[in-house]
Fold this sequence. Notes:
By secondary structure, the chain is an alpha+beta fold. The chain has 5 helices and 9 strands. It folds into 2 domains: 3-8 and 100-162, Alpha-Beta Plaits (2-Layer Sandwich); 12-96, YajQ-like, domain 2 (Alpha-Beta Plaits, 2-Layer Sandwich), CATH 3.30.70.
Amino acid sequence: MPSFDVVSKVEWSEITNALDQASREIAQRFDFKGTDAAIERTEQSLVIRAKEEDRAKAALDVLEQKLVRRKVSLKHLDKQEPSRGPQGSTKIVVNVKEGIEGDKARQIVKLIKDSKLKVQASIQEDAVRVTGKKRDDLQQVIAMLKGQADELELDLQYVNFRD
């Protein structure tokens, strides 16, 4: 029986490359001189530090530009409010969301069931598996989910298509 998985994965290598490019640009740009602006990566997030809040936000903009150039969707980023650090510095934490959360997975399953196509959708950890008898029905589900991408606020990929 044909099936495929709906996932939301991040290319961590592309994020690392964008992070390196942004760090190099911040080190070279004149408007960042003396602000101690830096971007570092933790396990599931990125931390932006600077002496002033506007420089931290500018560093975030540089990072976002580099991510877009490397075709990493900004829907994966969950930006926190800037927080004050020691000696008046500012820190912005940007969490990187990977996988489909339970609420969003249930929303995807509901969309698929409401489409009245002859397919079944089931939640598999952080992915949604869609199975059906006809390949055409599965392709209609993919097209429908691509049309609903803005409403879902997720960057979806369709993998493991099997006949």
